[in-house]
Amino acid sequence: MERADDDIDIEDQFSEMDITSGWSDGDRLVLRACVGVVKTADASLKKLSKSISTSGKSDDVERTKEMDSLVELIEVISPAVDELVSSLYPPVSLPAVHTQVLLLLLLLLLDIFLYLPRPENYREIV
Fold first, then answer.
1. According to a count of CB atoms within 10 Å of the terminal CB, is the N or C end of the chain lower?
2. Which of helix, strand or coil describes residue 86?
3. Of the candidates 11, 112, 53, which has an alpha carbon nearest to the alpha carbon of residue 104?
4. C-beta neighbour count of 51 within 10 angstroms
5. Alpha carbon separation from 76 to 4, 16, 25, 106 (Å, rounded)
6. For the segment 64-88, what is each residue's pLDDT rounded down to a tens digit?
7. DSSP 3-state assignment of 101?
8. pTM of the model
């Protein structure tokens, strides 16, 4: 499988880092888990962007509102990833990392909620 030039292999970069400078064994475990969260966010952003570019039509008000919601979500996910990565620099504060991971996961769940088709009786369910 060939990667696009703009794709960054986080695992390669992580393995090249000097992980002995400031991270404990526990911190390294947290770093590895956070790599997965960052990769998930990356995949989610790509799917959202592709969805907007291929299916985004502004032929009615409802679709325009949906696209606006997706764009707003994209604008929030990227800084959330930055905040998570910033919280991983030594000394690692586990409460800060946990907060950033939870925030990012909530945003990704919102992405899934907005992306999935809704049943016709959606309003009755909610």
1. N
2. helix
3. 112
4. 15
5. 24, 29, 31, 11
6. 777 787 788 888 888 999 999 999 9
7. helix
8. 0.67
Domains of the chain: 22-117 (1.20.1410.10)
Q: Which of 106, 116, 118, 92 is nearest to 29 (CA)?
A: 92
Of the candidates 84, 82, 70, 74, the residue with the CA atom closest to the CA atom of residue 113: 70
Q: How many CA atoms lie within 13 A of 22 on its CB side?
A: 9
Per the listing, tokens 């939870």 go with 102
Six token digits for residue 119: 């049943």
21 Rama class: left (phi>0) / alpha (psi -120 to 50) / beta = beta
